[in-house]
Design a protein that fits this description.
The protein has helices spanning 16-26, 28-54. The protein is mainly α and 82 residues long.
Length: 82
């Protein structure tokens, strides 16, 4: 645009910081949804090295089956089947 005018709102690729300020004021729901959505992958990428740095280990995998005892079963006293 001639004269350096940005029009009714700033263009993202020409003035990204000014565009982000404009979007935060004029369209806050869209701005915060993009901000939170963009933070998700960053937290995933930063989470693993951060946990290793602080020495936090992963939880053990829960067992899928109940351990069956290997010894023979003992009969219970006083519980007879008729």
């Amino acid at each position: 645009m001639p004269g350096g005018s940005a029009g009714p709102f700033p263009f993202f690729f020409r003035q990204p910081i000014q565009y982000m300020r404009w979007a935060a004021h004029e369209k806050p729901a869209l701005w915060f949804s993009v901000l939170i959505g963009g933070a998700g992958p960053l937290l995933i990428l930063a989470g693993v090295p951060t946990r290793k740095y602080f020495g936090i280990e992963r939880n053990p995998v829960p067992p899928y089956t109940y351990p069956v005892p290997t010894k023979p079963r003992q009969p219970l006293p006083d519980y007879d089947d008729p």
